[in-house]
Amino acid sequence: xxMERALQYIRARIQTRPTxxxxxxxxxxxxxxxxxxxxxxxxxxxxxxxTSTVVGHAGKLVFGTLAGMDVVFLQGRLHRYEGHDLxxxxxxxxxxxxxxxxxxxxxxxxxxxxxxxRPGTLMWITDHINWAFEVPRLxxxxxxxxxxxxxxxxxxxxxxxxxxATVNGTYAWTRGPQYETPAEVRALGAMGADAVGMSTVxxxxxxxxxxxxxxxxxxxxxxxxxLGTEPLNHDEVLETxxxxxKDLQRLVLGxxxxxxxx
Length: 262
Ligand code: HPA
Known about the structure:
The protein is an alpha/beta fold. It contains 7 helices and 9 strands; from the N terminus they run αββββααββαβαβαβα.
């Protein structure tokens, strides 16, 4: 079974026992630099691990300590639009659960559907809309809410204390890989979406059904299609990611510290 082989490969190489995992979205991969004592494993070297092909998604598992806590970063995630089915897309999440991870912080880059959420806005995901109309095979029941209320409230408090502006919102998952049409963005807005992106929802569902606590944080990297002045492109997404990186890094570190303390 590919899961067993992957676990064996990883366990032979790490000394840590991470209970917190952070999935780093487009342009956010450098967050792992904040950790110490890191061991990076290329996902292409891990037996049975599906491969990622997206620019800006490095494809590494980085084990280390952050604020004294054993953590693991997923640098580069898998997307449904890369051709993986949802079981493959969520393989890393099941792997994390097997490694003992109890909390999962999912970050992503998203388009702003809510016109008040300008590029650079940091948004806690309080709920989602599954606009791909597809669900992964779930190991257990999904308990609601998908995104942990207490952890989210604590994280908001951390942001406030650090003077980092954040908002709450609903994330809509579209399958991609093409960006939405302006008409789709208007439809999503009418349905109550604040942001739109091509990841996170399958991971959150699987993590939740495995009993993990899930925290979701979107970086609004661009106005969604039809709402901005410029046509959308992946470079803008990466550029905004770079711009907010410092605040994001501070914030995530603060959230991890608070998580240890609580
Ligand atoms: N749409 C979908 N996914 C995205 C976007 C967007 O506008 N920006 C970053 N990821």
